[in-house]
Amino acid sequence: MSLSVGRRLSIRSMIYVAGESIPFFWPMRNFIHHNPLHGLEDLPFEQAVQEGRRLFHGRVFLRRPDYQRYIEQGKVDSDDLSAQVAAFVAERETIPGIDLQQCLMALLTQTENKVVFKRSIASVADIQALVNGLPLPAEKEFTPGNLVQYLRHELLGDRPVYDAIDALYGTGIASELDELVIKSCLDFFDEGQSVWSMPGRKRGFFRAWREVANRNIRLYLRGMHIKDILAVDDTPEGVIAHVMNTLGIPEDRWVHYFTRELAQLHGWTGFIRWRWNAKNYHWSKTYPADLTDLVAVRLTFALALLSKRGRKNIATSTFTLEQAIENKTMETYLRYELFGKRIVPAMAKSVEQALARGKDSQIEKVFHKYIEFKRQHEAGVQANRLLTLAARVDQVEALRS
């Protein structure tokens, strides 16, 4: 495989754009903190913080009890808060019998947890029935088609393939991948503190790492055939293109996919971005490295780990993930519930046993039972939260009407 100069530059441009969201404040000589949204300053604030939450897995707001404590301490003006809530309510459609202003103020100032419960199966009709003390309606809004759409949304898209595999099989690839990449970065970016540093560093990060990886017998003994991947091309861009095509990632999603990969270890990504831009930095001039090198190393490790797991007959690409979602929908859903840590605890043992046995008839039986159980659970939790809030403001009867 040999890429043209134009193709290589195109891949480098994609990675450059993908890395723009990752801040590169380094080194921090004068301040003890930095702005994690620096790379998102071109976006509106609300959009930037949500993108930051998605990329860096951070919390956008303080916990609600913190705000409630500020109200008690007078750090938040209650009258101003009430005025803002009133303005919000004025723009919303009224609900007969419900004082929305009173409900929201109670939610903000008296309730520790949010009232909305994330649900995937229960419908509004299910919740309303339990609010009124009635059994769940016989008619279900949930359909197999909805389930396929839900799984595609959760497991495909910009989500790294290995992350989706971990959520279906509990393989732990993501943590193992991070450890391998961190060790490679420590070996290459050492600035004289370590007893041993990676040989051949003057050739650049990817080329130096490639020489070491090709001779690393420990990786081979761990079942990682990295040498086969690196034999495809001797450039980082060529390896990146090979891995992305093997994983089945459409090219129009490469930039977003690269961003997710770079954000996994955003500290190292930010450091490498800073290092590459600091042209007069001694270590950067002596041992060059950029984000393309980092992405190539990370994707090579990722494909090797996925190929290793693939020998155990599990999905390892978007192609096989799509096949699992379409052809083994019930099994895929139960796997996502169990290994994605969404399982209703009371049925965890039954689901785990059915998946371990691997019999389609048993999986189907447990699936239908689980769906009804989860429907009841989701509707019950949401109904109880609504009733608790309504009781605080003496609006239970209005909620039930």
Q: Mind explaining what this structure looks like?
A:
The chain is mostly helical and 401 residues long. Among the domains are: 119-170 and 314-401, no CATH class; 172-311, no CATH class. It has helices at residues 5-19, 45-56, 64-72, 78-90, 100-110, 124-131, 144-155, 161-169, 173-188, 205-214, 217-221, 226-230, 236-247, 254-264, 266-277, 282-286, 291-310, 318-327, 329-339, 348-357, 360-392, 396-400. Helix 1 packs across helix 14 (254-264) and helix 13 (236-247) runs parallel beside helix 17. It is globular. The chain starts with a helix and ends with a helix. The mean pLDDT is 89.
What string gives the helices and strands in order?
HHHHHHHHHHHHHHHHHHHHHH
In helices, the fraction of residues equals 55-70%
Structural class: mainly alpha
Shape: globular
User: Runs with pLDDT <50, length 5+?
Assistant: none
Any idea what the radius of gyration is? 26 Å
Largest sheet: none
What is the overall pLDDT average?
89
Number of strands: 0
- Measured between the Cα atoms of the first and last residue, the distance is 68 Å
The percent range for strand residues is under 5%
Helices, by number, come to 22
List the defining traits of the structure above.
mainly alpha, single chain, 401 residues
Topology:
Layout: H1 5-19, H2 45-56, H3 64-72, H4 78-90, H5 100-110, H6 124-131, H7 144-155, H8 161-169, H9 173-188, H10 205-214, H11 217-221, H12 226-230, H13 236-247, H14 254-264, H15 266-277, H16 282-286, H17 291-310, H18 318-327, H19 329-339, H20 348-357, H21 360-392, H22 396-400
Helix pairs in contact: 1-13, 1-14, 4-5, 6-21, 7-18, 7-19, 8-19, 9-17, 10-17, 13-17, 18-19, 19-20, 19-21, 20-21
